[in-house]
Every structure is written in structure tokens, then in C-alpha cells.
Amino acid sequence: MLFSGNSKMIGDIIFVRSKSPLSWIIRKLTKSNWSHVGVIVSEHYLIESNFFRPVKVRKNRYKDFRIIQLNITDKERLNLISFLLDQTNRDYDYGRILGILLYILGFSKNRHLWNNYNKDICSELVLRGLLELPEMSFLNDSITPEDIIEGLDKANKSRISLEKQA
């Protein structure tokens, strides 16, 4: 297994919240405990798309987070990281954020309004990486960190109950 220390594994998903006003607004609008999402690439680093910055590998400076370990092979972990590293330097998709805001507030019925497929928001970057893996298509309509965490939690619960039945 590709351990990166502190019970984190390369390719695990990290969900984040902070005390910033932007984090608070995102959590309130999405009815979530989490406002940001990224992927662990080593013990102290993650890859993320962050407001005002392009996709990059950055030092994990987050203090308040939850990690979801994916039940995938080492090869799948490496493929996930490789795919995400290929996305480095993609710009942040501000139009997508505005479109999601209009959707959440009920001004649009289109979950993907103003999505620029050459740019990413945090959840979109992680989602595109996860959709490269087998058996992750259930996440296809996710647009927020909360959507992703709910989908992964449901998948983990299903997997646990299936393992108990076996």
C-alpha cells in the first residue's frame, strides 16, 4: 500500500473547512460541513484547485479536515495522481462557481451552468480524477464537496454491508 503517513494514503480525498468568511458562505449555501476538497499526493502535500490560484500541488496547511480513504488498488491510486498531475496549471473556473450559486439559490435549473471545461473548481478537479477510476460513475452528477462526500460515504456503507453479508 502507498502510505504517506498519519493514516493518510496517496490518493485519499481530503475535505476541508476553515474559519474564513468564504468557507463559511460555501458551507451555508451547500448545507455542508466542508467547503473545499483535494487529493493527498504525499504525507504533507495535496493537489487542489483553489480560489484565485491554478491547479497545483501545495503543502497541506489545513487544520480542520476529514480524510476519506478510497478502497482502490495501488495502481489505481497512481493512475489517479497521474491524471491529477496532468491537470496542473489549469485555471480556476469562476463562471462555474457563479453558475452553482445560481443553481443553489434557485435561479437556474442547470447544475452545470457556465462550466468551462478547460478550468476547474476544487470539487470538479477531484470528481474528474475519481471518474477516471472504475466503479466511480455513481459520482457523475456531483458538483460540490458535499455531493462527493455523500457519494463516497454511501459507497463505503454499501461496501461494508456487502462485506458483512459475504
Mean pLDDT: 87
Largest sheet: 5 strands, antiparallel
Quaternary organization: single chain
Order of helices and strands: EEEHEEEEHHHH
**What's the overall geometry?**
globular
Give the distance, in angstroms, between the N- and C-terminal Cα atoms. 24 Å
Our count of domains comes out at 1
Q: Can you say what the CATH homologous superfamily is?
A: endopeptidase domain like (from Nostoc punctiforme)
- Continuous helix count: 5
Structural class: alpha+beta
Q: Which residues sit in consecutive blocks of at least 5 with pLDDT less than 50?
A: 1-6, 160-166
CATH topology: endopeptidase fold (from Nostoc punctiforme)
Q: What is the number of strand segments?
A: 7
What is the rounded Rg?
16 Å
Explain what the structure shows.
With 166 residues, the protein is of the alpha+beta class. It has one domain: Alpha-Beta Complex (endopeptidase fold (from Nostoc punctiforme)). It is built from 5 helices and 7 strands. The strands form 2 sheets. It has a 5-stranded antiparallel beta sheet with strand order 6-5-4-3-7. A two-stranded antiparallel ribbon has the order 1-2. The relative contact order is 0.17.
